[in-house]
Amino acid sequence: MIEQISTFFTIDMIYLWLNIGVIPFWFILMFFPNSKVCGVFVSSVFPIFILSIIYLYLIYYFFITGYDFTQNFSLYLGLDSLSELFSETAFLIIFWTHFLAINLFCGSWIISDSRKFTISKILIFVPIIITYFTGPLGVFIYWLIRIFYAKRISLYD
């Protein structure tokens, strides 16, 4: 069964489905952040569960094809080593899945945190879009907005 799945879900196909697959979640986060659909599908463990299954499948797929996962630790040796790793398709698709999952988690956190402080969905629209493209910058911009609603600066919650 796994062989049948792997013939259909090539790395290019997974990349395509990952990019298309996160768009509905981000669409819901951007335009319907306070809806029940957002709470059930986006702010829950559902999207992370799906991305985790894809992540595990990729690890399994590359494990059975003989990919050397120990070379991934060379990313800490310098930019040249990191650049070499990004030339590997296996590392690149696993990194991309990781990136999409973390950014979606950050976007979901922004929505759930903004509900606590009753921040207008119009104000969080820009940080959500920026989080979609560059996660940490969007979270930082949201944090700046959050300061005014929380009426305090908090480095942890």
Could you give a short description of this structure?
The protein has 157 residues and is mostly helical. Helix content is 75%, strand content 0%.
Q: Which sequence of SSEs, written as H and E, runs from N to C?
A: HHHHHHHHH
DSSP strand content? under 5%
**Radius of gyration over C-alpha positions, nearest whole angstrom:** 18 Å
Strand element count = 0
SS summary, helix count: 9
Largest sheet: none
Could you say which structural class the secondary elements and strand pairing correspond to?
A: mainly alpha
Termini Cα gap: 45 Å
How many structural domains in the coordinates? 1
**Percent range of helical residues:** over 70%
- Low-confidence parts lasting 5 or more residues at pLDDT below 50? none
If you average the pLDDT, what whole number results?
88
Structure description:
It is a single chain. The chain has helices spanning 2-8, 11-21, 23-31, 36-42, 46-64, 79-86, 89-116, 121-133, 135-150. The protein has one domain (2-150). α3 (23-31) packs antiparallel against α4 (36-42), α3 (23-31) packs antiparallel against α8 and α7 packs parallel to α9 (135-150). 75% of the residues lie in helices and 0% in strands. By secondary structure, it is an all-alpha fold.
Key words describing this protein structure:
157 residues; 0% strand; globular; 9 helices; mainly alpha; 75% helix
